[in-house]
Amino acid sequence: MSERPIHFHFRGAIRQLDGVAPTRTVLQYLREDVHACGTKEGCAEGDCGACTVVLGEKVDGQLRLRAVNACIRFVPSLDGKALFTVEDLDGLGGLGMTGLLHPVQQALVDRHASQCGFCTPGFAMSLFALYENHAECPSRRVIGDSLSGNLCRCTGYRPIVDAVPLAYAQPRVSVDRDAVLAALDEMAALPALEYVGAGRRFSAPRTLPELAAARLAAPDARLLAGCTDVGLWVTKQLKDPGDLIYLGAVEELKAIRADAAGLFIGAGASLTDAFDALTAFEPAWTELARRFASLPVRNAGTLGGNVANGSPIGDSMPCLIAMGAEILLQRGERLRRLPLEDFYLASQKTALEAGEFVLGLPLPPPPADRHFRTWKVSKREDQDISAVCGAFALDIRDGHIQGARIAFGGMAATPLRARATEAFLLTRPWSQATVIAAAQVLAREYTPLSDMRASSAYRSRVAAGLLQRLWLEHREDDESGDGAVPVRLADLEDTL
Questions:
Q1: Short-list 310, 283, 315, CA closest to 298
Q2: Regarding the domain with residue range 255-495, which homologous superfamily does it belong to in the CATH classification?
Q3: Where are the domains of the chain?
Q4: What are residue 337's phi and psi, to 5 degrees?
Q5: How many CB atoms lie within 10 A of CB 138?
Q6: pTM
Q7: Which fold has domain 6-179?
Q8: What is the per-residue pLDDT across 427-456, written as a single tens digit (0 to 9) for each?
Q9: Buried b (16+ CB within 10 A) or exposed e, 475-486
């Protein structure tokens, strides 16, 4: 691939950018290079949402707009996309520079929702994406989820949430989608991005063969997907990740298929799209999907990236392992398939070979008699890292456990199955007595660490409590008739 500048649609025109470092963030570009200072820096780690912008992409022939964090997104990843900032809002829908506010902005003013004002542009952009993606005012739950990546330290969020119906009550103002799509089509005709700046290379292949060749040619280059993790290395740890191979332009990696063989999620599918598919495939994913990071992070991050990261506290891996997921790896033209649990060798060390990348995650169809649940235990409801994430898949037939897959995150150096507990449960009756005895096995199976999020003892108690919770949610009527089914973790602990 020949080198070329970065191209993206911004403020009604296709912009070309050359000479910047591949790890320069969108936030730095906006504030320091084009002086679009409405986009704020609060945390520089994708938590506070003060830097929220909206990206536009062509998906299935339509313009898709999603809110993302500018502070941990590298500028070359804008290539081929449309960028919207808070400064653009009064220019939408023919308003021009007349001083009129976008309906979302006006509603925030009318509901006195700006408070100190520092975080307001980020809120406005999250609500702008919500407004563009919903023709009618959505539910309060959807509104809350759209704001999960925006923090305000002034006071409560009620005026901000109350502003949304008011925005919808005003005359509709929308992006000129045809104009943006035309610009996206023009950029799509350009060759794949091969960019060099500040002595570092940023390659963005568009097909799987191109990606496989690029990976073989540069096995030491850093694979970059959503940048929600690598971005932190740069902004918080001041690391130089070296040359980068960007996965976000490979459409084949974003494939999601559900059929009789089960569910396949391509490694490049965003967490938002992957979780939608997983929730449809297994509704018990719903709560975890909502609580996994924030919406802007889910919009940017990928399931393949989360899995390949190998974090011992990642939330997706225990759930996927319990569901029997495999991981499909590619090196050149060779494909390799592993059970997902075998992919993790040690803390943040995986079985990925030089020149290899994650292609996708196949999941088998669940048996009809499977009981599957997963829970995330953390200090905060939203935007928090788990102390423990537990996932349980039990196949129960005729009152007996015929299959068991249990996995935890936060309990060991890797996401890990509770194999001894699984073996103990097999063929036993699904009963209170079985759960109590299995909890004793589980207590001996892990030796979790103590850290800032939880103590070892707390993690062990939580793991036992989640097993008990599974029993309480999926128990048959208590055959003993003595009313002895414990309803609190303390009751269970008294029996241990």
A1: 315
A2: CO dehydrogenase flavoprotein, C-terminal domain (3.30.390.50)
A3: 6-179, 255-495
A4: -125, 130
A5: 18
A6: 0.93
A7: Ubiquitin-like (UB roll) (3.10.20)
A8: 999 999 999 999 999 999 999 999 999 999
A9: eeeeeeeeeebb
Q: How far is C-alpha 89 from the geometric centre of its chain's CA atoms?
A: 27
pLDDT tens track for 68-113: 999 999 999 999 999 999 999 987 644 444 568 999 999 999 999 9
Quick one: CA torsion of 218, 219, 224, 230, rounded to 10 degrees? -120
Can you name the residues that pair with 64 across neighbouring β-strands?
57
Structure tokens, 407: 């996995």
* C-alpha angle 471-476-481 in degrees, rounded to nearest 5: 105
Residues 436 and 428: beta-carbon distance below 8 Å? no
